[in-house]
């Protein structure tokens, strides 16, 4: 009968010799199964085969197989492709309760006590020699447990010591680096003290050196600014500050300039206090010097704040107290115009023009007719900064003042003529004057004309007002608006008197029709004049021949064409009796006359003296 337990492991003769050594370098006898699992009495008797059969489910007297099926139905397993080994294919059974979409982490099971072989190997890796005796007994199974435990404890202690050594070496290396950096930092500080800033190359050292240099310079800068007298134009404070700036210049950057920020802060406070309390606008040279002397030292923002917060309010206050006709901004402000920011200049100049506009409304003596622009220096500011909008503002002030004066009058013809003369003397266009006349006089006059019941009264009224006024004004301009109402009134009179010039249909307009169109607001009236578009008038072309004909007609002379030419020009004869006379021709607006043997130029007023 086959009994698997009868199989025993054969031993080589060399295995019985305890003095033999393992062929592997550094080790004694080979590892035995006893290193992994303690041997039972059955294992010792039958060897490793009995142990393997027991793991496969063999029970003595029942045969092989976990279901007691014997050797008839052996344990089956999947065939693996050659060369893959265990785990090369999926060997899970169909009843495995797991999900493919649930990842499972691998769990490594480690022995609490490493094998003697592993301990020996680790000792040798750490450079610690292991006695040969320990190598020889590394495979003796349970007899080496105590030794392994002791060695494991020693290995653990050795690793702790090695870790402490590594930590100490790391800390020592860090300390060396700190010492090196400290030595370099000390050298950088010494270079700052020695003034050798250009030798500092490290960014961190340069930043530290800049702070140290500022700490050194700040007390000196503050002392200089405290001793600075703004009224002393020969002070050496700006020059000394420039020397300090040169010393700090190696550490300047576009985004960080601590030295400029320090000087700007101190200058802005001291200069601002001086401008506000001790300086007068009548000292322009001193004020400009305070800014220009520090121009290379302070920031543009600091200068702009001094202009905005101190100087501009001071300029405006002086302009507000300025009396027209007395010395004013033309004396103390002109020097500032080339150094101030353009935005500040625009604000100051706007205040000056507003001052002139207010003065025109209340202070201008209209008996002078023409605005004294030169005497009050208005023309100076207009030449410097007068744009179209500014000139329009001055003209609007003139119109407002003239309208105010006209509304105060009794609206007689003389008042209207003076009104027109004032506007023309100050350059107001005729089309604007015509519009103003319509609003201020003609509309009310027309309503007054139609309110009269008697035709004779209407005739005398229109003759004394519109006709006489139009006759006086026609010499300078035709005033189309005024002409329209005059024609309307005359047409009405022709209709009333049934003259040959009457219109076929004529309807009397209702009462107060015209006065309702009048604009009572002076501001809106002036705004309306600004929106008027000038319609260009057709240019009248007058030839020299026409002038010659007019002259001869006034002096009872005749101009007769001749059949001959002179240098390609037409010839004429100026005569009194249609027979004899003066032979002439016209060339380049010049009258050439044959007064003797040759032609020579003559004037128009001399022609009659040559005609007999």
UniProtKB/TrEMBL annotation:
Coiled coil segments of this chain: 151-178
Keyword Coiled coil part of the UniProt annotation: yes
Biological process, per Gene Ontology: spliceosomal complex disassembly
Keyword Zinc applies: no
GO CC entries: U2-type post-mRNA release spliceosomal complex
Domain of life according to the entry: Eukaryota
Similarity comment: family membership: Belongs to the TFP11/STIP family.
Name assigned to this protein: G-patch domain-containing protein
Record organism: Pichia angusta
Record lineage: Eukaryota, Fungi, Dikarya, Ascomycota, Saccharomycotina
